[in-house]
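Milestone 3.1: sequence recovery, worked example.
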């Protein structure tokens, strides 16, 4: 992990309330799928955690939804040429075992962004079934990136595009035919909870990337602690954000 002063190359709206930000690091940055960065914003004491969507050479791209004052400032105040203080790469990221040849990727909302980097890393090496959920057509983005998967199912809450329902429902409706060796998921907690309950007892490993409020992002402040099954605790920023689904309480 290192702290860099990055230069914003591009910060553009790609869907309703969603932006793609590309910045240049000072040197080549190696980031595993599922790792994240902490972005410092002028006037905000706490950095904001955002998954890395793509890292190529010195260029790093993150995608974010405008939710509160920090992401609003990021969208409004950081045009090309502005400087950003960024900590990266952080967290463990996804690990796909060599014998996991057919994988399912299940994402919802901003949870699709870390999964896009997983799809890119596995394209051509694994057989990928992707199930990606959005609120509606206006929130749909990065379709060309998701199409790197061998099989892509889009789902929307209102049925305006693809499957009418959640990405978990779309995935579960095909699970018995697809029979993945492992499942990788990221999205809102209720979605992950539904996935946990639907996959319980099926003997297929499921790995989830959790979203918790964070203070430091480097394991020091304990703001992000979650409960492990059995009573122990874990720091989402340092021990995660990716966990085996049975390992954590949701
Ligand atoms: C590992 C990780 C990866 C993430 N990746 C992405 C991503 O790729 N794209 C994306 O749009 N969002 C992502 N998020 C969520 C993102 O961090 C929050 O939406 C963002 O911090 C909200 O900041 P704000 O100032 O706009 O909101 P405010 O509500 O004003 O924020 C107040 C405080 O709460 C924290 N906070 C608020 N909501 C969340 C949240 N859902 N998760 C974590 N902290 C939160 C903020 O960081 C800030 O410290 C990720 C979160 C985590 C933990
Ligand atoms: S955010 Fe500080 S320990 Fe995780």
């Amino acid at each position: 992990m290192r702290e860099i002063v990055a230069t914003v190359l591009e910060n553009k709206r790609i869907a309703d309330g969603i932006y793609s930000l590309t910045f240049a690091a000072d040197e080549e940055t190696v980031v595993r799928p599922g790792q994240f960065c902490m972005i410092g914003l002028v006037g905000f004491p706490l950095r904001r955690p955002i998954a890395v969507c793509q890292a190529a050479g010195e260029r790093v791209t993150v995608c974010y939804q405008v939710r509160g004052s920090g992401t609003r400032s990021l969208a409004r105040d950081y045009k090309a040429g502005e400087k950003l203080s960024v900590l990266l790469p952080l967290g463990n990221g996804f690990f796909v075992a060599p014998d996991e040849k057919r994988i399912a990727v299940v994402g919802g909302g901003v949870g699709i962004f870390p999964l896009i980097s997983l799809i890119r890393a596995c394209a051509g090496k694994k057989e990928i079934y992707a199930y990606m959920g959005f609120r509606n057509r206006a929130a749909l983005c990065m379709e060309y990136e998701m199409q790197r998967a061998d099989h892509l199912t889009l789902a929307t809450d209102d049925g305006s595009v693809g499957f009418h329902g959640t990405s978990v429902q779309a995935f579960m409706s095909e699970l018995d035919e697809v029979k993945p060796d492992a499942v990788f998921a990221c999205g809102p907690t209720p979605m992950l909870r539904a996935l946990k309950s639907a996959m319980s007892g099926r003997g297929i490993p499921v790995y989830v990337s959790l979203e918790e409020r964070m203070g430091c992002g480097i394991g020091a402040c304990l703001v992000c602690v979650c409960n492990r099954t059995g009573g122990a605790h874990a720091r989402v920023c340092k021990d995660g954000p990716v966990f085996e689904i049975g390992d954590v309480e949701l």
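The chain has two domains: 2-90, 102-209. Residues 214-217, 219-224, 235, 237 surround FE2/S2 (inorganic) cluster (ligand 2) (CB under 6 Å).
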